[in-house]
């Protein structure tokens, strides 16, 4: 029997809180710069009250589920990584109960670990991946540290992280290329992205093709406004190429993104012949946390 | 009839000045933070006097040759890029004469451009490559922006730049990996380098394998001191892999480096089955500038 749900995606810098009805409708949502790095030891019940106290007041019978870095060693309490392959039931079984106050419990979901050649971990993304409702497929979650995951027979079998968003920021804002980069016009954005995608296929690799932005601008062959879009498309292309080497080519990709990332990854994936299904991070989180809450109460 | 030579490798941030005897012996050398970015318009004769005025005084009949960014648009005077393929004679023929003072001329060497799919340029490195004295071969000049060049029948036929040193600095000092990195012990240096070289062969690519440093340290599988050596070896390996895709595998590499770069690139190249011949940047510069000075007076 589903209950309403108060669910937090509680990360390092930010927290997103949702009040979700029995039928899965998002009744309220809130985002705050109240990530775990801003919460002092022992301060989680108070931080939760700031973030979602009014949701609790409105729905005192709601289940409370917390996902993300809140379950890390630096969060409220450590919920140990569940090793892959992991099913929704196995993820839910490793959740940890905490007391918000006398008589009110919350559940902290664990992250996942994967030891597929290289060791890797995630916290929070597992909930979005579960929310895809996919039995067999590949998921891509773009971001500062993008995640790709393989799902087989309803279990997350393996995954890998890519430092794409962070390296983009370093190249765009802190490298020698930053001095040449300008705010892109619409034409620059289109041209830079097309050239970045094309550069992904060149043999010299990222260290060579990233530097080419400089030479092309200095030679008057590319506008300064195209540098950012070039780097973005180049890095997205490199991420996709790396993920193809790990997970295979040409498969349908479940892309968990919205806005500019949905656009740039969608274009990059289609350019490399992947059918793409886009789902927003909010929709994936809400579906995933409901599924895991259902397993918790099962 | 060779004359003594005063030669400057005059870059953006630094200048190196050499007094070279008729027979090629370096009689005096000097390095100063007197790169072109520190020289005001019209200030070059004075900056030269600071750097090498005493060399001139000691050898008034010496030829004076200036290589590097001094010949760029932001330097003393622009010596246009010579397009590849370029022989030493073709490079020398594009040199530009300037007046140091009444009656004393200096020669500014040009850089090279290459339009082999991607456009690329170099200034200063062409002199070191000429100094290798190689008729057919591949040169690697590691650095902030490494250069690889192909030489065929005594001409530099094509080359490519790699942003390796700069991206290393960004990842080591400014990324999320910086927080985990510590000063390496000798054991950390060996372990990190071995793991970085191994990671080059993994299928996920640089964006994935760079991030693995974080996960491995957080999981207690790698020491914080190994992060820097891991990243260095990984990036060197990625550069070599990219250069192999452009210039071919398994060839002998003329490595223009000394100190830590000679060590890390030498190890990385041998690990990928390249015979390596190491020559110091100073030896390559002195031999190259003498060769080009000979062409100038020919």
Give an overview in words.
The structure is a homodimer of 298-residue chains. Chain A is of the alpha/beta class and 298 residues long. Chain A has 2 domains: 5-133 and 287-297, 2-Layer Sandwich (Nucleotidyltransferase, domain 5); 164-279, 2-Layer Sandwich (Nucleotidyltransferase, domain 5). The first copy, chain A, has 9 helices and 14 strands. Chain A has helices at residues 44-58, 88-93, 125-131, 164-174, 186-200, 206-218, 227-247, 259-271, 281-297; strands at residues 5-10, 15-20, 26-32, 63-67, 82-83, 96-101, 104-108, 112-116, 118-122, 137-141, 146-152, 155-162, 253-256, 276-279. Chain A has a 6-stranded mixed beta sheet with strand order 3-2-1-4-7-6, sandwiched between helices. In chain A, strands 12-11-10-13-14 form a 5-stranded mixed beta sheet, with helices on both faces. In chain A, β8 (112-116) and β9 (118-122) form a beta hairpin. Chain A starts with a strand and ends with a helix. The model of chain A has no long low-confidence stretch (mean pLDDT 96). The interface between A and B is large, with 44 and 45 residues.
Fill in the keyword field for this structure.
homodimer; about 300 residues; alpha/beta; Nucleotidyltransferase, domain 5; 2 domains; six-stranded mixed beta sheet; about 25% strand; elongated
Concise structural overview:
By secondary structure, chain A is of the alpha/beta class.
């Amino acid at each position: 029997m589903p209950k309403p749900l108060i669910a937090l995606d509680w990360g390092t810098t930010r927290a997103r809180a949702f009040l979700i009805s029995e039928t899965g409708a998002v009744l309220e949502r809130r985002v705050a710069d109240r990530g775990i790095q801003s919460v002092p030891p022992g301060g989680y019940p108070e931080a939760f009250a700031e973030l979602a106290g009014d949701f609790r007041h409105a729905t005192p019978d709601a289940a409370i589920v917390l996902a993300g870095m809140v379950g890390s060693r630096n969060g409220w309490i450590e919920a140990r990584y569940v090793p892959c392959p992991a099913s929704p039931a196995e993820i839910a079984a490793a959740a940890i109960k905490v007391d918000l106050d006398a008589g009110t419990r919350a559940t902290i979901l664990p992250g996942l670990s994967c030891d597929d050649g290289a060791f890797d971990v995630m916290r929070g993304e597992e909930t979005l991946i579960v929310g895809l409702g996919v039995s067999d497929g590949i998921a891509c979650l773009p971001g500062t540290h993008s995640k790709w995951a393989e799902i087989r027979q309803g279990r997350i079998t393996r995954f890998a992280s890519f430092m794409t968003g962070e390296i983009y920021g370093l190249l765009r804002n802190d490298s020698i290329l930053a001095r040449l980069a300008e705010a892109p016009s619409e034409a620059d954005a289109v041209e830079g992205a097309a050239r970045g995608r094309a550069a992904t296929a060149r043999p010299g690799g990222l260290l060579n093709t990233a530097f080419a932005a400089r030479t092309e601008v200095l030679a008057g062959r590319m506008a300064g406004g195209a540098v950012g879009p070039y780097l973005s498309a180049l890095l997205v292309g490199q991420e996709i190429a790396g993920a193809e080497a790990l997970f295979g080519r040409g498969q349908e990709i479940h892309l968990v993104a919205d806005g500019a990332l949905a656009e740039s990854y969608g274009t990059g994936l289609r350019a490399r012949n992947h059918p793409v299904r886009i789902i927003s991070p909010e929709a994936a989180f809400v579906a995933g946390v409901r599924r895991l809450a259902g397993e918790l109460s099962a």
